[in-house]
Amino acid sequence: MKKESRRLVNCAALAICLVLIVLVYATLFQSNDLKLPGNEGGYRLSDSRSNLWSERINIDAVDPQEFLLRRLVRGDDRVRFESNGFSCHTDVHSEVFVANKPVRIFNKGLTVYVPHDDQPQVKRTVKPYARKEDETAMELVSPVQILHGNSTINPPPACNFTHNVTAVVFSSKGFTGNVFHELNEIIIPLFITTRHFRSRLKFVITDFELRWVRKYNRVLSHLSGYDVINPDDGSVHCFPGAVIGLKYHNNLAINITDIPGGYSMFDFKHFLKESYNLKTSHVSEIRKPVLMLISRRNSRRFLNEEDMVEMMEKLGFRVKRAEPEMMSNLDEFAEAVNTCSVMVGAHGAGLTNEIFLPTGAVMVQVVPLTLEWAATNYFGEPAKAMGLRYLEYMIEPEESSLFDAYGKDHPVINDPKSVISKGYYAHRAVYVDGQDLKINLERFKKILIEAKQILETSTPFNRRT
Ligand SMILES: *[C@@H]1O[C@H](CO)[C@@H](O)[C@H](O)[C@H]1NC(C)=O
Ligand SMILES: *[C@@H]1O[C@H](CO)[C@@H](O)[C@H](O)[C@H]1NC(C)=O
Ligand SMILES: *[C@@H]1O[C@H](CO)[C@@H](O)[C@H](O)[C@H]1NC(C)=O
Ligand SMILES: *[C@@H]1O[C@H](CO)[C@@H](O)[C@H](O)[C@H]1NC(C)=O
After folding, report:
1. Which ranges carry the Glycosyltransferase 61 catalytic domain (predicted)?
2. C-alpha of residue 150 to centroid of ligand 1, in Å
3. Could you give the CA distance from residue 122 to residue 149 in angstroms, rounded to a whole number?
């Protein structure tokens, strides 16, 4: 008996000690936290940093900067990185410079100085936007000049702000304003490049677009535990290391074998779920099927949208029509999409929002004439990789406004290849920007019935969250 109670006392003492230790740590980290936002040249945006606390706990066990940076470097580049402390990798889509050395960032973020005593200064230029193959996009992106080497001749300015986590430098220009490009060329590449840092990094945004930063504030504040830095005011920021440019895999894709930390598209979806506070994980949680119809204004419009909605409602769907202006408030729109079991839309950027659909939901893409390749590669394959069921509705020539405009004997209708062979702009003007759709309701109904059957038999077997 006595032994028993002594053990109890010991246990209690131990527990009290543990609680005290946790409290002491908590206080230490808390005070560290409070210093973070806003006071180091950071750009403050209001956002609940509700998960900062849990991220901070993780940080406790985080690897040193060198290890985190090294994971971004592969193959021959790694040998170089280990001897010189930097690497510059370039492929078809992106250029990424990684420095495990103190860097100085100035000139609106467009000059990065990396000291290296033993070599004469080498200049490199990186455009930190992941669409290198697209000249039109890249023209909009300011080049970042990297000065690497001995600084005797050209000494860098003194630091205004000294940070103690890695800088990740990227541009918010390029094709921003188009949600596909925003996700494809910035948001997903940011996740690929930085998720394994577990928030211990600061974003330095060149070509700073406040609207873009506001729109994606939730993503940015869940990838970094610090405010983003807008270097436009001319101040000089010093960091212990830097990544300039973002890694890219494929259209709305994450290649699990090629990302530090082995994250997958499912991890990215889970990350979005947390960031946007989305409630529905699997489509089976939605009782009555809800269909979101993506409504377009400029081209590839549904000319008989009212009739389509009526038919959908008759089939038992609750229909939500998504107008383009609803999509600019992503925080709200992501939640709206997440409550839907089916998304229907003509090929176009709005379909990128499929990323917010719950797992097992059905994505129906309406494919205008000649846009098969783009449809499959930009939204179809990605939908499958996101755990959605993907259905494609290829229109018949009669369902295209081009049929009425040109007539059935015109090459635009009976020999599209001849138009396509005239080049990108010729093709674009006719089929991408000049085509509207009048859907054959009887034929389209079949695909919606198929969607309904998929939902009825759907079970949350592949639920990940
Ligand atoms: C750096 O460059 C200056 C001028 O070219 C030279 O005098 C100096 O020796 C160099 N320093 C080192 C460490 O190589
Ligand atoms: C980083 O800087 C903050 C203040 O800017 C400081 O409180 C913290 O201890 C530093 N952390 C490390 C790991 O040096
Ligand atoms: C940065 O520091 C320099 C020199 O120390 C100073 O002249 C300049 O005003 C500072 N800039 C900012 C934005 O604080
Ligand atoms: C994923 O990355 C690995 C390693 O870089 C590569 O071998 C593989 O082909 C990639 N897979 C896809 C689908 O791109």
Report:
1. 278-364
2. 6
3. 6
Closest ligand to C-alpha of residue 64 is 2
Q: Where are the domains of the chain?
A: 39-265, 283-463
- How many angstroms is it from 146 CA to the middle of ligand 1? 19
Which of 30, 32, 34 should be mutated for ligand 2, with most atoms under 8 A from CB?
A: 32
Query: Measuring from atom 3 of ligand 2, which residue has the nearest CA?
Result: 32
Give residue for tokens 């750009």: 43
- CA–centroid distance, 118 to ligand 1, in Å, is 8
- Contacts of residue 410, defined as CB under 8 A and 6 or more positions apart, other chains included, come to none
**Mean pLDDT in runs of 10 for the chain (465 residues)?**
56 55 46 36 46 43 82 91 90 95 93 87 93 94 93 86 96 93 97 96 96 95 96 94 97 95 96 96 95 96 98 98 92 97 97 97 98 97 97 98 96 95 94 97 98 89 46
Tell me the angle at which helices 52-60 and 2-35 cross, rounded to the nearest 10 degrees. 110
Which is the closest atom of ligand 2 to the Cα of 162? 5
Supply the residue whose CA is at minimum distance from atom 10 of ligand 2. 164
Nearest alpha carbon to residue 299 among 430, 136, 444 = 430
Domain 283-463 class in CATH: alpha beta
